[in-house]
Every structure is written in C-alpha cells, then in structure tokens.
Amino acid sequence: MFSAQTGNEEKWADVRAPFRLLALGDPQLEGDTSLPNMTDGYFPTLWTLPSNLLHARDLREGLATLRNASYEIVTQELPAKFQGLRKQVDLFGNDYYLAHIYRTLHLFTKPTHVTVLGDLLGSQWIDDEEFESRGWRFWHRVFRNGQKVGEEVTNEHTLEVLGHQKEWGRRIINVVGNHDVGYAGDMTVERIERFERLFGRANWEVIFRLPPSSPADEPETELDPVLRLVILNSMNLDTPAKDPDLQAQTYSEMNEVIVRSRPVEDHTSGTILLTHIPLHKEAGVCVDSPFFQFYNDEDGGGLKEQNHISYDAGKSILEGLYGMSGNPNAPGRGMGRNGIILTGHDHEGCDVYHYLPANEDMHARRWNATRWKDATSLLDEPIPGVREITVRSMMGEFGGNAGLLSAWFDYDAGEWQFAYSTCSIGVQHIWWTVHVLLLVTVGFSAFAYFFIGSDTPQALHGGAEHGQAGNIVKEDVLVATSESHSLKLGSRYTSLRQRVN
C-alpha cells in the first residue's frame, strides 16, 4: 500500500500519501501479426488434393500425389493450424492475465492515479482495423472500467485540487510508445491521430494542488504546494525525424511547460515527468546500453530505433524542464526544480540518479548517471540531480511487474518528497496453472453431477441387497405417475411398508 513518509525513506507515517500513482510498463498487446501467416487458408493441400488426383496420369502418380499431400498436411499444415489455435488462446489469456495485474493492484493499493508508460500495443505497423481491435481489447479486457483522460483535461492547462475528483482513480494516463506510433523516423500524423483518438493526447500536463485551508474554489496562490504531471512524447525528440512538424510540436509543448513553471528557487512545486524512452546513460548502468539505428538514405534516412534518447535530448529535459545548471550564481544556486522521472521501454527496468558532478570548469561538466542504490553519498553533495525510474514491464515473462510511486509535501523541509516501490504479481504460468486447474475442477464436478450423481438413487435403492425396499421405491414412483390406479397402488404401498416394518 502507498504511504507517506516523513524525514527519510526508513520512517513511515500513518497516513497515505495524497498522490499515489500505479505505474505499469509496456503491456504490448499482440494480435494478428503474431499469428501464423495463412495466406492460402488452412489445409490448402487438402482442398487441392481431389483435383490433383483427377489429373494423375496413372495409379502410381496418384499414389505419389496422395503420399506427398499426406506428408505435407501432417508435417506442415496440421502443426500450423495447431500453432494458430494455441496462439489465439494465448492472446485471449494474456489479456486477462494483464487485467488480473491491473485489477488486483488497483483493488489493494487504491491509487489516486494510474499510468501506462508506453507500448500499449505490440506494433506500430498494424492497419487501422487491427489497431481498433487491440484498442477494444485494451479498454474492455485489460483495463476494463478504465477511462481515457478526456480532452477537457488534456487540451487545457488545468489546475485541480488533489483528491477532489475521484474519477482520476479510474482514468488511465497513457504515454505514447514506439510500438504505438513508431520512432521519429517512421512517425506520421495518421499514427499520432489514431493513438490520440483511442488513448489520449501525446503531449500534455496537469497541475494538482493540495487542498488548502480556504475553500477549494479559490484560485491558486504562491503558497499552495503544487504537483505538476507532465506527459511527453519522447519518440521524436531526436533526429532525423520523418515529420519535422510533429517534432516541433513536441518541443513547443515542452517549452510551454517550462514557461508555465514556477521559478526554480520555489520548492513548493514538484514535477513528475512520464515518458517512454529513458534518458541517456552509459553502458553498464542499466540492461539496455545506448543504441541508435537509422534508415538507409533510400528509405528516408530517419531514426529507426533507439534504446535511450540522446545525451543532448536528455540534457534539454534536465536543464530545461527541471532547470538544473549547477551554476551557484544562477537562480536557486543552479539546483533546479524538485521532481522525479518515470520511463518505460527497457523491459528489465532500472533505477538511476542523474547528476551533474562538481567541476571547476563549468563548461566541461557532463551529466552522469549511476544506480540509485549507489547514489547515497551524491544526495548529500550540493550538486543538481534527479531520480529516473524505468518501470519494469508488466508482461508475464518479466514477472507481471508494477511500480508504486507516492508523493507528499513535507512542510518541515518545504518541498515535495517521493518514494517508489515495486510489486510483482508473478509470471503468467502461475495464472495459467490456476485457471486451468479451476476449469478442470469445474468440468469434473459437472461431469460427476450430471452423469455419476444421476445414478445414485437407483444404486442406493434398486439393488437386490435391499430386497423389498427396492420394490417400495418402484411402487412409490408408480403412485406418483399413474393417477388412475393411485388408490389401489397406495394400498399395496401400505401393505409392503407394514411387511418391511
């Protein structure tokens, strides 16, 4: 369960944090692209066999045709059919396994907000029909009863009182991922539009303030602590981009967020950035190392794939969005804004601390990243830094993981505090085993009830070892079914009962 903390992460308070975010990474719903390719339909050899036999020149050729067709069906087409059926069952079960993760954690942790950090779907190359189909599964199976964050929130720079609108607990804050719209080199307006239609805007922000002592409808004051939630499309931060206008929109949105931010020296504001691709870090810090791949010139030469955003793109976030410079003569001594970053993409997950090391030469300093567990000593130094958490994927092979982020305002320290923990529901094989055993149990119970249980009265009362008692039952049935002889049979029943007694 989410909790607020006071002082440090070892001391827990008795109250829940006012902001509790359930973070889920990379569900990647698959679909028809993962099924076997049946261009000619199932069992094409079987359908063409009669015609091939009729055109056989003699018996020997006909037998050879039959032998070859049988071999093709048994070794190729039957396994392909079985694989297709197995994959369809797997997709169906995987939807409800992911739904089990969301439903269970939502029930027991009671989050105030929920986010999916990109790669909602498994491929950006699917057509519109398949995109709609997977979108339906997303909303009606995996996140059933969840709601898209509406345009009344995402199209406006809204200021809301934290905890006053309970529907935030059902809203799903969807972050756009590379498997949803592609990387910068293959992102198009059409892909962005269909994503935003089904899942919400790619770039937006919302500001929450703590409930003040004054009425909730009073305007924000400089004394009210506020928490900024920034959702950023990091797919087109780097170049070359297929559509420069889309890239310009993302940077324009980010600049507007910076302009609307409170001064860097004002620690009553906290910033939570939700984006898909992690920030740059050197090889060995996380599982994924820096990697970039580009299309050939004949294919446009755009950015095809990346593990992290580039160093310069990450620097624009750290020094722009968070206002960190490390310059002691700058506002706020260059320490920047308080906050935290949540990303996806790296399915293994990672937890790092980005910092700007102290150096006499201000222009020679470069941003570094180290594991969060190794950053204890850095937190005490007067250098700027921010924590970035790459949430481990919720897919079954990664343990059905989820992240739990809590945020609260520490009035003693005069700034927002953040705490993060993980929760693993377990690999998908456990879910499958439980449900298969449940189906087997229900099936056996139904069989026993309808086929074994129905013979029990006859077995108990109709055997020879019960003697005349069996006749009593038979006579009793006759009494119930033959009204014309009920009086006569009733007398016989009485006589038999006396003989038995």
Report on the structure:
- The protein is of the alpha/beta class and 501 residues long.
- The protein contains 13 helices and 16 strands.
- It has an 8-stranded mixed sheet, with no helix packed on it.
- Helix 1 packs antiparallel against helix 2 and helix 12 packs antiparallel against helix 13.
- The longest helix has 51 residues.
- The C terminus is likely disordered.
Low-confidence stretches: 5-14, 459-501
Mean pLDDT: 83
Percent range for β-strand residues: 15-25%
Helix- and strand-based class? Answer: alpha/beta
> What proportion of the residues is helical, as a percent range?
25-40%
Distance between the termini: 68 Å
- Assembly type of the shown chains? single chain
Give a short account of the largest sheet.
8 strands, mixed
